[in-house]
Design brief:
The protein has 505 residues and is an alpha+beta fold. The protein has helices spanning 7-21, 37-47, 91-94, 96-105, 164-169, 171-177, 179-201, 242-250, 288-306, 330-338, 348-357, 368-380, 433-442, 459-467, 479-487; strands at 57-70, 73-80, 83-90, 111-120, 126-137, 146-151, 154-159, 205-206, 212-213, 225-228, 233-237, 255-263, 275-284, 311-314, 317-320, 327-329, 388-394, 403-404, 407-418, 421-428, 472-478.
Length: 505
């Protein structure tokens, strides 16, 4: 079916055809660039005070962002990755016919190349006096409308993509017109670089583990299922890296980490997306107390590297990331915030009864661990704005975690919360193969279970444990949420380039 072009698109298509008729290719294969826009500006300003300096000649490329034809001259702006620069096109330099050619065939959004000499206009703006220009890519569809605002004498454009869903569906257009969105993803890249730098400097080895797995595990989540035709085998998109990374500890790789995608077939909200980026690391001969200290140090390092301060602002809250962070025992925090002492309710039935007494409506099918998890979500997480480490969790929601020596029903696990969000989850890892097998069986999360978040029995992982795994501490953190924190962004879809969206009806 032929595309139904808008009137503006039809006009631009006609211009592309007109260029070809004149022997001008609207999509040439090659371009030349001697400077970025900012390099050209800096080169000129560095020399302009020197009367004997030679003129700065430059060939610049970028997207055409503004045009102001004024008879025998035209002012324009182009934008590349480094910023914007003004172009000055004059009939005395180009000839009136060539100036009119530019004004007629070139539109906002086109990618162009311009060559000439840098100078400063009477208004003080560093500008390229254009001697030659050519089309690099004709834009058929106009970019979303933008309104102009004058800031310090400069024209600043703001995207008018009003609906967030439209922005997410057309991220390419969103990025093209919205400098703030581009800044978010530059910051995201800087965060990932700093995480790698931190871990590499401490002797961790970056590795890659399977995304398609015959048995999923390492978290309580519903997986995505696919099928390998040749092997005639169902496979799962991983929900965690954990079980494969810990296999590497068995193989004498003492410190390992991975940054990559996980996939969980579950709900979407402001802090959850079905496809998301995780950092996980495992550290031999460490426990959760040592991982706590490393966590604080790592987040502070990222803050120093990315924003240059351990003081950040998130949604109006001034947040101090400097170590040490406050510690809160889970049972004590819940007793204070909810009025329910979970240590006095060792069974799901007892805890559910206590919750109903507080006018809460717990799911009657929930395990005790899931009930505790719901209390955390309602009474702790939203109120922990400053960085806080909550530690010592119920055993039945932590099947891969070592129990405390003096309390077999509580495990050495912590979560860190910042700005009302869970930022990371960490354990002293269970390395007893018999205990691990008993945990899987005890929790009833084998393949026969109909629990959507079942944790299947992984016989190969148990085999690995039987070879011997050193005591170790493990850690998992959502990179998307960390990016939200450092960019003051309240919705995870703003920090994922192409977030998952419901199909349009």
């Amino acid at each position: 079916m032929a595309r139904d072009y808008s009137n503006l698109e039809k006009v631009r298509l006609e211009k592309a055809d007109g260029l070809r008729e004149q022997g001008v290719e609207p999509y040439p294969a090659h371009s030349e660039r001697t400077h970025t826009t900012q390099d050209a500006i800096l080169a000129f300003t560095a020399l302009e005070s020197n009367a004997d300096a030679q003129a700065v000649k430059a060939t610049l490329v970028g997207r055409l962002r503004s045009m102001r034809p004024m008879g025998k001259i035209t002012f324009a702006h182009i934008e590349d990755i480094s910023g914007r620069v003004q172009l000055f096109l004059r009939s005395n330099d180009l000839g009136q016919e060539k100036l009119e050619f530019f004004n007629h065939y070139f539109d906002l959004g086109d990618f162009i190349q311009a060559s000439g000499e840098m100078f400063r206009t009477r208004s003080g703006e560093v500008t390229l006096r254009v001697e030659e220009f050519r089309m690099l890519a004709k834009a058929i569809t106009p970019l979303p409308a933008a309104k102009d605002e004058i800031v310090d004498g400069q024209v600043v454009q703001h995207a008018t993509l009003a609906e967030p869903e439209v922005r997410f569906r057309q991220r390419y257009a969103d990025l093209a017109v919205n400098q703030e969105v581009r800044r978010i993803f530059h910051t995201r890249a800087a965060i990932i670089r700093s995480l790698r730098d931190f871990l590499d400097d401490r002797g961790f080895l970056e590795v890659e583990t399977p995304i398609l797995q015959p048995i999923y595990g390492g978290a309580a989540a519903r997986p995505f299922v696919t099928h390998h035709n040749q092997l005639k085998q169902d496979l799962y998109l991983r929900i965690s890296f954990e079980l494969y990374l810990k296999r590497l500890l068995v193989g004498n790789l003492e410190r390992v980490y991975e940054i990559g995608r996980d996939f969980r077939n579950e709900g979407v909200d402001r802090t959850h997306n079905p496809e998301f980026t995780m950092l996980e690391f495992y550290m031999a001969y460490a426990d959760y107390l040592q991982v706590m200290a490393l966590t604080e140090e790592m987040i502070a390092f990222v803050a120093d590297s990315v924003v240059g301060s351990r003081q950040i602002v998130f949604q109006g809250h001034q947040i101090d990331l400097a170590p040490p962070w406050p510690r809160m025992k889970l049972s004590e925090g819940l007793a204070e915030m909810s009025g329910i002492d979970i240590e006095k309710h060792p069974t799901a039935e007892s805890l559910a009864q206590a919750m109903r007494a507080k006018d809460l409506q717990p799911d009657p099918k929930s395990t005790r661990g899931k009930l505790v998890d719901s209390l955390i979500g309602n009474f702790l997480e939203p109120y922990l704005i400053q960085p806080t480490i909550v530690y010592d969790y119920p055993r039945d929601i932590s099947p891969l975690t070592k129990s405390k020596a003096d309390d077999p029903n509580t495990v050495e696990r912590f979560e860190a919360f910042i700005a009302g969000m869970e930022i990371c989850n960490a354990f002293t890892e269970l390395n007893d193969p018999l205990d691990q097998e008993a945990r899987f069986q005890e929790m009833g999360r084998d393949y026969a279970s109909d629990d959507e978040e079942r944790h299947p029995m992984d016989e190969d992982y148990l085999r690995a444990l039987r070879y011997g795994m050193p005591p170790n501490g493990g850690f998992g953190m959502g990179v998307d949420r960390l990016t939200m924190l450092f960019t003051d962004t309240p919705n995870i879809r703003e920090v994922i380039l192409f977030p998952h969206l419901r199909e349009r009806e």
